[in-house]
Amino acid sequence: MCGITGWVSFDRDLSTEHATLAAMTATMACRGPDAAGVWLGTHVGLGHRRLAVIDLDGGRQPMTAEHDGRTVLVTTYSGEIYNYRELRAELKARGHAFRTASDTEVALHAYLEWGEAFTEHLNGMYAFALWDPRSEELLLVRDRMGIKPLYYWPTPDGVLFGSEPKAILAHPEARAVVDAEGLAEVLSFTKTPGHAVYRGMRELKPGHTLRVRREGLAERRYWALESHEHTDDLPTTVATVRELLDDIVARQLIADVPLCTLLSGGLDSSVITALAAQGLAAAGQGPVRSFAVDFTGQAENFVPDELRATLDGPYAHALAEHVGSAHRDIVLDTADLMERRHREAVLTARDLPLGLGEGDTSLYLLFKAIREQSTVALSGESADEVFGGYLWFHDPAAVAHDGFPWMYTFAKGFGGGAATLNPQSLLAPGLLAKLDLPGYRDARYREALADVPRLAGESAHERRMREISHLHLTRFVQILLDRKDRASMAVGLEVRVPFCDHRLVQYVFNTPWAMKSFDGREKSLLRAAARDVLPDAVAQRVKSPYPSTQDPRYAEALRAELRELLADRDAPGRDLLDLAAATAAVADAPGRDLRNAGEVVLLLDGWLRRYQVTLEL
């Protein structure tokens, strides 16, 4: 994986702007610790930071393609093309000559062969830019599911772009200004395709390209989920899912660096680990290495609840023993979770006050420990969105809710009387009235529903479950993919997500809900497809989300930090608070309630400080 950035200006000579491009590129050092490069032309500058995964010596970037001694194409590329070997063979048969063994060069030649239609040939996760010096045009490309991020900022005479907002904000002409809509996007727990929060900035939508010419910018969608009638019976469907998974995991095991899996002991990560173990064994490699997160005192402090009925540890160990993985638990301490430099590192990785508080810090620390032993990790992320694993898929009230179903469940979770705090409880009433978060969520929900492809003849329930699946695959999954990308790339770890392979996503999206839940449980298809590689305990385990520390010291550390913020009259986040409510909460709120709201307050204050954000509400 890598970090990319660039600048196109049709009215300026950028060949002397090395310092600006170098500064933008330097912000991506965490994404690419192995090498750096800048390529300058008259009207373009491209920057690259490399994490070497395939062809360690030959894959340096920005990379060029030449013809008759002239540069005909330049790319700065981030990601992996999992079918690059097949594409390379096809392109060689068509007369293309290669000087490296990298997938980056395959992307260059695929574009030279097929033009913008080359996206139809790619299987992978990627975000990259292609500059054609002959026509002086830039093409930005993002993968179908939006696994890899890509942001851009239109200018009067071109564009700025980067893997993360920080690359664009490093340019002297870009300012960190956030208006009411941007702050509503931050606080609403929605993910609006294309929205980047900062005024003037956009995120390239998944499955889209952006063409930059002198005449202007043109965005084009090259892939989206489509609705088709599903004609396979249940045994065929289960077999097809397994065939796809076997192929996907085998492709994603290709790397020239140490590789591992993330193993929680849940169904999703266990399936990936088991299939990876099989794939490596078949290739004469292995054993697969696996890692799980745990917390000091978790067993002693654990209290089952509606979301997490069981600890992860015993199930992760059972799967590791079953497949013979070389397993290690990464045990985190509360002191590490609360250390400010770790929290600041997470905020810097995100560039925005988004996330799950301690859940993001623990993920960052987990990846930091894994990176000491591996460069690539396979994850079970996105199986819940693809196969219908969350509680709210199976809650009739959440399904019937006229809004994002996860928001219904989250709101219910924050119920229980006036003493319970929701994430916005400590914010000023005037601010909340101005942002109108319920209205903002509703508008985004209506837009999302309008995007759902329909299928004639479906029952009302099947139609609604298609809607819910689409909401998750185009909105909710983006929240989690962003989280995993930033936390992993902050330490130079490449995380691959096999369940986001577009072939699997498209196939399962069109599988009727009655078939997805044929045994009356969550993720019926996935469990059936991989049942033979799992121990009984893991196969029958009920869905449990990413773990959270239950050490009471964590909430008390938050309380102390919030007390400091309230005492600091210069704290920028203080102006956003309902001071009376915040003071009362810090004094009396139970630890769990304080975590719900306190994490949001501290994150907002840290963001306003770190990025010198101008709020224009």
Automatic annotation (TrEMBL):
Family to which this protein belongs: Belongs to the asparagine synthetase family.
Pfam families: Asn_synthase, GATase_7
UniProt-annotated site: Important for beta-aspartyl-AMP intermediate formation, residues: E381
Source lineage: Bacteria, Bacillati, Actinomycetota, Actinomycetes, Kitasatosporales
GO molecular function, one term: asparagine synthase (glutamine-hydrolyzing) activity
Class of this enzyme: ligase
Binding site for L-glutamine: D103
NCBIfam families registered for this protein in UniProt: asn_synth_AEB
Protein known as: asparagine synthase (glutamine-hydrolyzing)
Organism (species): Kitasatospora cineracea
